Amino acid sequence: MLQGNIDIGTIKNEVLYEVAKLAFQGALEEKKEQLPFEMIPGPQANFRCCIYKEREIIRQRILLAQGKSPSSKKDDKNIVQVISSACEECPITRFVVTDNCQKCMGKRCQNACNFKAITMSRDRAYIDPSKCKECGKCAQACPYNAIADLMRPCKRSCPVDAISMDENGIVIINEEKCISCGNCIRNCPFGAISDRSFLVDVINLLRSDIPVYAMVAPAVEGQFGAQVSTGILAEGIKELGFDGMFEVALGADFVAASESEEWYEAYQEGKKMTTSCCPAFVNMIKKHFPELIKNISTTISPMQATAKVVKALHPDAITVFIGPCIAKKSEVLDHITEGGTDYALTFDELNAMFRAKEIELASFGQNMQQGSIFGKNFAVAGGVTASVLQALKEKGIQADIHVKGCNGAAECKKALMLLKAGKLPEDFLEGMSCEGGCVNGPGAVLSGRQAQLNRTNVLKSVDDRAIYDTVHSYEDCNITMHRK
After folding, report:
1. What pTM did the predictor assign?
2. What contacts 114, CB < 8 A, 6 or more positions away?
3. Which residues of 416-436 are buried (b: 16+ CB within 10 A; e: fewer)?
């Protein structure tokens, strides 16, 4: 039941929890239609104008939790989806004249407008929305900063201009442009944008006899508490029904070893190259800078490398990536035919599963480490570069390699524009769509200072092993580290 002063995160997490609980019980199909009424019993509304709108929002979120599109118009396959019933509260008129307007004699705003959209009313300037082209020149010209730019938060946050509005003011996401970075999900103040989930599919597999293995992202340390190590998490994941858990830091070590060789070869040839680990960054290149696809490292991502290790050891296994990244879901769909990762979940979806099964992670205790500290630090901005340079060092290769680290999607876009123009001074480009790295991904349970403190505490117990020690321990798997 949702009551009181609740926020977007609470609504999303409670829906995931209720859906997970019913899915584990095998009762989701039978009870999903009644669930919105149980969560919003009424008669008073809690977070919207009426209980009917609140229930419709819950209904659409249930569809997302099942991996379906909430849109009744079409079965949109994009990972990022619009919850139309929640999208209606943002201002449609972007530039608005505020009380700061002095109706000055200079009329700089009016003179700056090339579309004759500005007139002078009795008290202040007025912008005609039917004529305004949202160029922003009036706001730039006003000496009193009296013109407010009320661009929708989702549209402002999108680094690739994939968001527009339909005739009713409801957000439309252009699938051809969307890179699944999740910035719009994080920035929408009404929770009107969210992501499709593999939650129910994975739970159904866990209830079957099919072997299913979890692969947790390097960002996992600290996500479930300052004392929850990967060993403790592995025990909790087994309680959910998984046959075992692998660290994707293991795959990250494989990637660092492979990319070090690829980088050195490219460096000798004078070829500039980008990393291939962040799927949102790779999506940005493929969709918006297609001429740079040849510059992407051919080394597969740590997620795919780990999946190959798992399937080499357990040929009949289903692999499920679990991390803070929404774009990983799009990577799964893009490579589903290549025999790699089968499903992807976020940390908040895993947390909903723990709650549904009433699993307390503090009750377990076991030490576990598969990847090196360098592999684990793939989760932070600059971590990939540090790992690749360490791999070169361990191989005894000396090279004066310079890397441009891009912290966030906006920086990625700027650097790619320089690379496209042939003006990027560095040799290589590390792209991280999320500021700070994967640890601040939109699917995280914790982010910011608390997550950082937890992570630091957990990593104190990590062994300082070499990257190639990890790689050599799995040599018998004989996996291919490059895309087809």
Report:
1. 0.91
2. 135, 137
3. beebeeeebeebbbbbbbbeb
